[in-house]
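Board notes (copied after class):
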Amino acid sequence: MHRFLPLFFGICCLGACRIAPLDPTTNSILNLWIYTCRSGINVGCTTGSVDPPKSPVDDTPPAPPGACASTSLEEVIQPNQWPKVQAELQAQAALGSSGPPVANTFGAIGAISDAYRGAVLMKNGKILAIPYGAANQIELDPDTLSTTVVGTPGGLYDWSGAVLGFDGNVEFIPSFRSSFASLDPSTYLMTNYTTAPGFNSYVGGTMAPNGKLYPMPASALNYKVVDPVARTSTIFGLVPTDPSFAGGVLGPNGKIYGIPARSSQFVEIDPDANTAMFFGSFLISFSGKWAGGALAPNGKIYTMVDDYSMFAEINPNTPSFFLFGAAPGTANAYSGAVLAPNGKIYGIPFNATSFVEIDPDTMTVNYFGTAPGGGAWSGGVLAPNGKIYGMPYNANTFVEIDPKANGKICDVILQSAYLNKF
């Protein structure tokens, strides 16, 4: 009898899988069947393969593409793209720096007074220095620190900064020149178009999401919108003082913020309506408050001191401004501000004898290194290698500011109107 016991128990065990219950739709039987067959406890429960249960992440949709996936300089500066741009800037800033910032000079250009004013990062990764007192344009290769004279010589004090158009052309902003101009980087041929008042009419400017250029009025009596494609322009509004502004910054909301020089108020330009709204106020309309500004990853704009005793933070959401930090006390201290991948902002020394680093998160100011003063450099731009290059005004050399940033900003943001301006 004992010889039949194993056979008896084997038949009973196999029966649990081979013999269907009277009501196979009951929850208890179904749960048992699924458990025993899928768990692999009894390999006799199935003759085929069963897909393993999916991980919860399998059904998670892929993350949407970030700002670096933007295909054009136009797309990346649309206000609805700002959350992606901000996320990218914040991600790079979070990587921090490997050490304290340093600055070094290179590339002698000869004894030229008031030589260059502003620069543009071109799509080929090279930097075009915009001539002011110099007759020639200079192309700087940040990878080799070599310079090349390009283009056709122009007149003295023609230009005061430039921007990169959506088509990759460099759009020159006139100072004493009576027209705007567009340069094709593939041929270095320059085409003059539309009119300008001359007589120190503009200082810097920026592209807007609508594809138009908005130069910042210095001595011009009106604001101006320039269409670099149609090569036409229209004036609007009235400018309060002379010289009014020194540079402009595109905000996340698609509006442009003029940096006050002599103006007693800040200005917000709405490119959709071509209107100018003033905000903030100073009791005395003195010259040289600030010279240039930069947009930070937090969405606010930080001005660079010229003659004023403090820096300023502009909040485009309000709009309003807040003063912070102590300036070095030098007249015409800095000329231009540039955002680095570490999220900090660096001033281009003009008469200041040190370099400056602003931390937008803590609103603290750090001075470092030694600058020559004497109107050394004017305007600068961030290159793909994460370093900042200042343009010679009276220094007769370029300057490279290395913030020692661990992150890198992708090309489409680097070349965009958010960063690529004077």
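Comment from the instructor: The CA atoms of residues 1 and 8 lie 11 Å apart. The chain has one domain: 75-414.
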